[in-house]
Amino acid sequence: MASRNGSRETDDSPQGSPGRPGTAGTQGGAVPADVLVRIHDLAGRPRGTGFLADHHGTLITSHEAVDGLPRLVLHGAGDRRRVVSADAVTPLPALDLALVRTEGLGVPPLPVTVREQAGTGAYVRIAAGGWREARVLGPATVTYAATDRFHRLGDVLELAVGTAGRDALRLGGGAAGGPVLDAGTGAVVAVLGTALSSDHRDVGFAVPLRARVPGAAGPLGELLAENAATVPAYGADLNLAGVLELTGASMALECPPDGPGVPPPVERVAVAAEFTAFMESPSAVLGLVGPPGSGRTTELAALAARRRRDAQPTLWLRGCELRDGDASLADAARRALDRAAPAVAAASARADLGDITPERLAHLARSLGRPLLLLLDGPEEMPPALARRMTDWAEGTARWLRDTGSRLVVACRAEYWETASLPAERCVRLGDLGEDEAREARRSLGIPDHALVPADARNPLALGLLAEVLADASAPAQSAAIDRHDVFTAHLDLMSLRIATRLATGNGLHGTAVRRLAAKVAGQVHEAARRSLGPGSGDLDREAFEEVFPWGPAPARLGGCPGWASAVLAEGLLVPAGAGYRFAHEGFADWLQGTHLDLDEALHVLVHRGEHAQCDPVPHHRIGPVVQALLCLARQHGAGRTASRLADLVHALDADPRSWWAARLLAGTLSALPDATPYAELLRLLADRIVAWRRQERPVPEELGPAFWTGLRLPEEARCALLRRLVHADGPPCEAGPRFLDAVAALLAADPTAVQPQLARWFDDEQPLPATPHATVATAAQALLHTHRHGALDELTDVLVDHAHPKADELLAVLTEEEPSAVCRAADRWARDERPARRSAAVAHGLRVAPHVSTGGDRALLRYA
Q: Hey, what's the signal peptide range on this chain (predicted)?
């Protein structure tokens, strides 16, 4: 019945070499080389072939190739040979299949199709006396004659193989167990059988490989699942492993590499737990929000690494790679995959990966219960034209995420997140490292515990850059703790010297000449910072970059050495960003740009002229250089000039309580000061204005709420004096939001010995509190001290007796009833004190507490007193 034979017979390798087909890829219907394992018996007679299906050495072959053999001789790539016993074989005679555990054969695994079946008429390639082409005729029912019994197999593939193919598929010819490859994708769709029979004798048969084949559960099902997750396939057979390989290749291209200056490699357990909770929730978007240098990119990279280990697909996208015409984030994801495709195709020798759109990857990942996660780092760097369409872009992104079941984590500054328009129900706030995390980071980076001032000792960027500086042999020895400004200065000096050293190599420059060149490099870096100022995202366009750092020979004023641009990029001081370049570390860039900002002009444009009067409004996330300019003014000229400009901001906020720039610049600058004590008068002015605004029922910026005041670097005496004023700004108890009195309570609970004496000074203040008309500042202080007395009870009794005030006596009287043991201990201490007032107090309060004493120890203390 030759009419059934519709094959196009080919032979791509010499006959008798079934393990070495002639090509190394699966492009254009070709097949990978060295993928077959030849199976012989101990006498050297060929029994069949097989192929590996995982990276652990599990071989799939036909049951007839191993049936009845106590030992198998397996021949792999080259001269590799392994002998395995029957114990290593998992027979599946009902499917005419067998699995063999082996190792060291030196052949790669082949992907198995994820489709239910190969379509009728599809062309395939079979390993039978060499590689040849065949055509699928359709399903058939056959009989497998094993040594012990017959097995009836349904839905077996019937193949048109041609005359030579039929000869190669004869029983005992060694073709049994060979893979049947899809001609387009290279995935295994079936396993050849030579002991299968039916009414048609001029065709070949192959057992399909798919998870839903009856009897495929158990070891075979687990192996096929492992294959789909670890052996990539593309085109119509795209599997999880293919998705992971594509997204992994994209990550390798887009994710910033580890290197000097990367924040401390310590696990932030709380942040990791937030990521886990997000992926388990129905939410589609999560914000990772923090200031520059807080480790946003580092945490994204750690999340990506964890997902890579867990075989979860992840794509890394950068804001600078977004384009003006993007309708959603899917457009950027598509470009990222297109950039990764050539690398994947080259590594696997495939000419065409087929449909690799983010939609297809996302739908496949969702169907497997592993949703695609997009990581968007630095969305502030999106083009201005796209930023003006932010709402439409965000709606398109939300719609795409919803349609594909994908997730998104956005790492950005708080200023950007406020206006991002994304449907985010969750947000992780990122700041400095915790005490234990910072200690571990310093240990791992080799930084002494007291190398940085306390204000900067937990900042990820400061720690990372300081470690880089200390690791350099030319770095001067530290004599005292330094701050972030000193770290940035040292980093700039070090990077300038490294760039100069690169330039000097091959130009005959040595010693002091290199140092002079380093000074010129530093000057150009400052020029780059100056040019990157403006309403944009803080980057340099290509023309400006090439003017500052020439690719070819530099002008004579720069020493004439060629390759400035290459040296700057090689050292990582600046990095490519879309159509331009930017400084690698945003916190460092803000600091450097702040030294060149015309502060008064910036304040005039942003605050005093009014934001709405700007023809080209400055994005809120560009606040960093302005804050750094104010801090630079304080470092260079002291508190006077800075306080004057900050006072102007208070007055601007008084005129317009909704002035975003005035509120944020005040909060950002005062919070970053290493010591806010010289600004006490300004802080009193601001506190009084906040109280006045509340009384006038005007809005108070959230940035100036209780958390701002408790975070200022002030002595507790000054802080509590300010909070004594601010408690008058609290609303009624039913009003939502943070309260200043609650902030005082938190301070008292955290450090009772420091705060108790400050609260005792409030006893003289009988002003009523607007929030609770029947209470005064004095009674509120009394109530706080009583409520939080257990943190330092003995210290509280001493504070109260030292403040000879009726409110203190009232609280002591309460303590004699509620805490008699503490008062007994106090009487014992005071009785032995040389100060007459303390001894008098011991008598008075000892007599007062005596009726309430119930233990022998307390009575003994009173008797002695």
A: none
